[in-house]
Amino acid sequence: MAPLLLDLAVLYRALAFGADGDLDPREADVVRAALEAWVPGQDPAGVDHALREAALVDVGVVGLGTVLERVGRRLARPDQARVLADLRRVAAADGRVTRGEEDLIDFVERALGDGP
To answer: Of 6, 41, 69, 83, which sits with the fewest C-beta atoms within 10 Å of its C-beta?
Structure first.
């Protein structure tokens, strides 16, 4: 599994589940589709594995900043914008965007602002 895919899975899952404490099935579907789009043509089992591994990551211990630093180093600006667009789609998938989700997206946007 690509390290970037795992970092994206951690980030997307942090938004989908952590920001409002609820993993709506619609959000889960958008997370999966977004991750699959990052690895077109690859076996979907890789995305399944990334999602399982991401579920084991405690962002409070690892630190979302650490994950964002790695994502920012690996992705050029257009792909960073793609990550933000993915996050916005995940947040809106359940029909409501919470203040916590907005705050997390703002945090990610600020963190990636210093990338390549």
So the answer is: 41
Q: Write out the two tokens for 26.
A: 């619609």
pLDDT of residue 1: 52
The dihedral through the CA atoms of 48, 86, 60, 7 has a sign that is positive
Predicted confidence (pLDDT) per residue in 35-59, tens digit: 999 999 999 999 999 999 999 888 7
Q: Which one, of 110, 115, 92, 78, lies nearest residue 15 by Cα?
A: 92
Residue 17 three-state SS: helix
User: Cα(46)–Cα(16) distance, rounded to whole angstroms?
Assistant: 19
Q: Report the alpha-carbon angle 72-111-5, nearest 5.
A: 40
